[in-house]
From TrEMBL:
This is Wyosine [tRNA(Phe)-imidazoG37] synthetase, radical SAM superfamily. Pfam families: Radical_SAM. Signal peptide: none annotated. It comes from Lentimicrobium saccharophilum. Residues 12-245 form the Radical SAM core domain.
Length: 317
């Protein structure tokens, strides 16, 4: 039971979170092409008993006991290098961890949400993140590379049922891969589906570390900007996860710092960038310099011009 508990680690989504690994390394129902912890070593879609939840609870409490007050986590996050709902004891574990008084988050790939026992186990969590990369069968097969018994329609139905009754904070996470699920038509279909789910936040991400398969190319800034706009048009509260912990809510008064920080979370329309420029006393030259240094990118889409923090290799606008 080594490496069962780690952190706290900082993240924009969860603040400070104490991580819990309730699954042996890389036991998963998917073998996502973009997986950043390597190819799945053991695939399964049936649930199993892995670790004793009481022993995990003890390890978490031991860790909490040695943390300073300032290190107290905002969440205990069940986020293993595999799929947490494969753990038959997940529901018991969530309840035990909640006895610490700290909210519990579970990050799931959603593949088992068609099972009532899995939905019940997640129901007592305070925060659940469900993976929703696509609703297209062929895209799902090539991106998520599911275990052979899984069916996309069942999973989508499971997500809908869960979202109807879950009372905690529900977020979705969509990982965009170039030329697979970053096309406008599939993003519109996905946004329709997410609109039915009504997540608190719909996160759009792109692989930022070397993926499991070399032919996987992260979606670029243009695709992310378009995806963001499509999600917004479906009234989804949307944020980007591109590897930078931007903070759209705090202003330093420095144009380039604030622009980089805000556009790490969402693209900014040109009018808003000009507004920030006026507020911080910056000039057009400052903006042009950032474009030419490659720190931000400019994207034209549907009669509007957007700016987004650069996260791929440096390039001119
Ligand atoms: S669901 Fe997560 S852990 Fe499993 S293969 Fe996909 S990215 Fe990796």
């Amino acid at each position: 039971m080594e490496h069962i508990v780690y952190g706290p680690v900082p993240s924009r989504r969860l603040g400070k979170s104490l991580g819990v690994n309730n699954i042996p390394h890389k036991v998963c129902s998917y073998s996502c092409a973009y997986c950043q912890v390597g190819k799945a070593v053991s695939m399964q879609a049936g649930r199993s008993v892995f670790y004793n939840p009481s022993e995990i609870e003890i390890k978490v409490k031991e860790r909490l006991a040695v943390l300073k007050l300032s290190e107290k986590p905002d969440y205990i996050a069940i986020v293993p290098d595999g799929e947490p709902t494969l753990d038959l004891n997940l529901g018991i574990l969530v309840k035990k961890l909640k006895s610490t008084g700290i909210p519990v988050a579970v990050i799931t790939n959603s593949s088992l949400l068609d099972r009532e026992d899995v939905r019940m186990d997640l129901m007592s969590a305070d925060y659940v993140s469900v993976k929703a990369d696509t609703i297209d069968y062929d895209q799902w097969r090539s991106i998520n590379r599911p275990y052979k018994t899984l069916e996309l329609e069942d999973i989508l139905t499971g997500i809908r049922i869960f979202s109807d009754s879950f009372k905690g904070k529900l977020v979705t996470e969509t990982m965009l891969v170039k030329h697979i699920n970053d096309q406008e038509n599939s993003l519109n279909s996905l946004a329709d589906f997410l609109g039915q789910i009504g997540p608190d936040i719909a996160y759009i991400a792109t692989p930022t570390r070397p993926p499991a398969f070399e032919n996987i190319i992260p979606a670029d800034e243009r695709a992310l900007t378009i995806a963001f706009e499509i999600f917004k048009r479906h009234h989804l509260n949307t944020e980007l996860l591109t590897g930078y912990e931007g903070n759209q809510f705090s202003s330093t008064g420095n144009f380039s710092t604030d622009l980089l920080s805000i556009t790490a979370v969402h693209p900014m329309r040109e009018e808003a960038v000009f507004g920030l420029m006026r507020k911080t006393g910056a000039s057009q030259d400052d903006l042009i310099q950032m474009l030419y240094s490659g720190s931000i990118r400019r994207v034209d889409f549907d009669d509007h011009r957007y700016y987004l923090r650069s996260f791929s290799k440096k390039s001119n606008p």
